[in-house]
Specification:
This protein has 19 helices and 27 strands. By secondary structure, the protein is of the alpha/beta class. The strands form 6 sheets. It has a 7-stranded parallel sheet with strand order 7-8-6-9-10-5-11, sandwiched between helices. Strands 12-22-21-13-20-19 form a 6-stranded parallel sheet, sandwiched between helices. Strands 23, 24, 25, 26 and 27 form a 5-stranded antiparallel sheet that branches. Helix 1 packs across helix 2 (99-105), helix 1 crosses helix 9 and helix 5 (148-163) runs parallel beside helix 6 (183-196).
Length: 697
């Protein structure tokens, strides 16, 4: 039998210029989606047989090229499903990545290390263990009584689920519920219907710290079904095992972060995207995809319902759900809290009226301190929110003006008092705190600003005897630390919880009745047009941590310490009026021609010398002007980002704005090959990348 030519996707970075599948010879045909190992250069790589047809024999002039043979085939593993291949194809095309780079990046890293016999042994052990496990007993679980709005939402889901197979593009469901309105209970009931029909459910959460709580809820409700999680916090072995269970159909529920959108699920029946507005759903390195948007596309592709849940939907999602001829999503409102509890009262404190002490403004207003003391005395819990970790953003010498800048980045090194270190949160460069100013020798160097570590220390002084705990990326770094700290809060062993944004969303803290937002104003006047949207969502989500127990909801409140109490954003926040805020923001966006009324891409370039990156971007802009689709597309001049230098590499970016998504994609399709060729003309360019639908500019 003569050899056949296969198209194989392998992991090649965008800047390599190898954007498509590569061709290899095989002694026999293999179905698309088959995993195998192939040679590339001197390496032996994991690859996937792709469904792109190889070039016909004799199509090119001259003799056909001599193709390298494929290596061993992972015959014990079923091929990736056609729908999965189509999802990766779309994502690679839309986000301008190679199919191999994207397809291999979303597979478990451990899979790339294994050969076929090694994988076969692992599969055999896993299946033997699963088959030997006794069937779990269905322990009765107390189910809360559903409210009328929850019942209406489930009725809409039932209709969508039963009709999904017959609908070419089923409309996603936007579950727009205020904080504490019982969105999770709707997810559970929807999943129950899907599981009862023999299908699988995929539930996405924005961050790892939200998985333990949601996983416990699903595991308790469905003890007779297998649940696995997919996120970067798992060990490589755990991640591979969970992925295999999903791929083989042995897992009924898959709970994951953004990588979970690519989980292979042969019996997929439901996709839930919880806190759909969260920026964490956008991958910021490598293939910069949006898991939320791909979840919607996957729902269309596989004809399964997609539920997008949030109290503060993204403005793009909100616009899609507005009634009218352009409505694409069905909005399911949950306007009442479970148990009829009230939303917390939002109170603003004008920091401008506080007298300064030693030239500095107090950390907390007197009435805020009084409120904290009252909550502690009543046995209730409080949350103090400051979105900056560390002790202080910078150390400063008053004599010579020295500041603790990073030698490798255009950023300050943050002072971490507990570790006595200065740490750059961009490149990781860490040093011990100097005993004196490195420039002038002054012994009196002092911190400027405040982070959660310093706030925790100040609260301990203001509230003697109070049990104060801190939860941020520093305290949750070690294995099990996050779960342990959350367990302390849920058990009532903490009076005041200090934290960053990681504690303001998704958590069901039943004893918290007071939330304090410290210094939220920094985002009000940021250069990024999405900053107000993110701030409003963050504060509204933070407020939602208070009063989740209906018995205490009437007395729950949120204090916002601000220098701009008259700002319209805070006026909407006081009323918990997301619709009013969204309406005003969309009007501003439309007047300015900003998303969702236009579509953006960012071309980024990095080099040791900023002049090299600038020259390359300017040449790229000149190329774009003469390409199809360039008419009507605006290419703005290159500018440095907020942090222009990271780890010794200078960074610049260039914004591309188009009136429609189709026009933008047309330009990018012709631009990308030209950019690959352009790189060789600019020596010293370290790397470049395109970011479609960027979240920050």
């Amino acid at each position: 039998m003569s050899a056949v030519t296969l198209s194989v996707a392998v992991e090649t970075p965008q800047h390599s210029g190898l954007t498509g599948a590569l061709h290899y010879s095989s002694p026999q045909p293999l179905p698309p989606g088959t995993l195998l190992r192939v040679p590339l250069g001197k390496r032996d790589l994991l690859g996937i047989v792709w469904h792109a047809a190889p070039p016909a024999a004799g199509a090119a002039d001259g003799p056909p090229p001599v193709l390298r043979p494929v290596g061993e085939v992972f015959s014990g593993l079923p091929p990736m499903a056609p729908a999965w291949l189509a999802l990766v194809d779309f994502a690679a095309s839309y986000y301008q990545r190679s199919v191999g780079e994207l397809a291999l990046a979303v597979l478990p890293p451990e899979l790339r290390k294994l050969d076929a016999p090694g994988l076969a042994k692992r599969l055999a052990r896993m299946l033997k263990k699963l088959d030997a496990a006794p069937p779990p007993s269905a322990t009765p679980v107390d189910r809360p009584q559903l409210g009328p709005e929850q019942q209406a939402a489930l009725a809409a889901f039932h209709t969508a689920f039963t009709q999904a197979g017959a609908t070419p593009r089923p409309a996603p469901l936007l579950l727009h519920g205020v904080t504490g309105s019982g969105k999770t209970e709707v997810y559970l009931h929807a999943a129950e219907q899907v599981l009862d029909s023999g299908r699988q459910a995929l539930v996405l959460v924005p961050e790892i710290n939200l998985t333990p709580q949601l996983e416990a809820r699903f595991a308790a409700r469905f003890p007779q079904h297998r649940l696995v999680s997919l996120h970067s916090g798992l060990t490589p072995v755990q991640r591979l095992r969970h992925w295999l269970m999903a791929h083989l159909g042995r897992a009924d529920i898959v709970l994951g972060t953004r990588m979970g959108v690519f989980a292979p699920l042969p019996r997929l029946g439901l996709i839930v995207v919880d806190e759909e507005h969260d920026p964490s759903y956008k991958q910021q390195e490598g293939a910069r995809y949006s898991a939320r948007d791909l979840a919607v596309y996957r729902g269309h592709l596989e004809r399964v319902p997609v539920i997008l849940g949030s109290a503060t939907p993204s403005l793009e999602t909100w616009q899609h759900a507005l009634p009218g001829p352009r409505q694409r999503y069905q909005r399911l409102p949950l306007d009442a809290r479970v148990g009829g509890g009230a939303l917390p009262r939002v109170r603003l404190f004008d920091m401008g009226v506080l007298p300064k002490v030693n030239g500095q403004c107090p950390v907390l207003a007197p009435m805020v301190i009084d409120s904290l003391r009252q909550r502690i005395a009543a046995g209730e819990q409080s949350l103090v929110f400051l979105n900056r970790r560390g002790y202080a953003p910078v150390l400063h010498c008053a004599d010579c003006g020295w500041k603790s800048g990073c030698p490798h980045c255009s950023a300050w090194r943050v002072f971490h008092k507990g570790e006595r270190t200065l740490r750059c949160h961009h490149c990781g460069f860490t040093e011990r705190v100097p005993r004196a100013c490195p420039d002038c020798g002054n012994l009196d160097i002092a911190p400027i600003g405040r982070g959660t570590e310093k706030l925790e220390e100040q609260l301990a002084e203001l509230l003697p005897g109070a049990r104060i705990a801190r939860l941020d990326a520093d305290t949750a770094r070690g294995k099990g630390q996050l779960e342990a700290r959350l367990a302390e809060v849920h058990a009532g062993d903490v009076d005041v919880l200090v934290g960053t944004q990681m504690v303001t969303k998704g958590h069901d803290f039943r004893r918290i009745t007071l939330v304090v937002a410290v210094n939220p104003d920094s985002a009000l006047f940021a250069s990024d047009f999405r900053a107000p949207e993110r701030l409003f969502a963050l504060l509204m989500q933070a407020a939602g941590r208070a009063g989740r127990d209906a018995a205490q909801a009437g007395t729950s409140e949120m204090w916002v310490q601000t220098w701009h109490p008259q700002h319209p954003l805070y006026a909407a926040l006081k009323k918990h009026d997301f619709a009013a805020f969204a309406t005003s923001q969309l009007a501003e966006r439309e007047a300015a021609g900003l998303p969702p009324y236009s579509h953006l891409a960012l071309l980024r370039a990095e080099a040791r010398d900023a002049a090299v990156a600038l020259a390359w971007l300017q040449a790229a802009a000149a190329l774009a002007a003469g390409l199809p689709g360039g008419d009507g597309v605006t290419v703005y001049p290159p500018v440095p980002p907020a942090v222009s230098k990271v780890a010794g590499i200078e960074r610049l970016q260039m914004l591309v704005e188009a009136p429609s998504r189709a026009r933008l994609q047309q330009l990018l399709a012709g631009w990308m090959p030209a950019l690959h060729g352009l790189r060789s003309q600019h020596k010293g360019l370290a790397r470049w990348a395109i970011d479609v639908d960027p979240l920050a500019i």
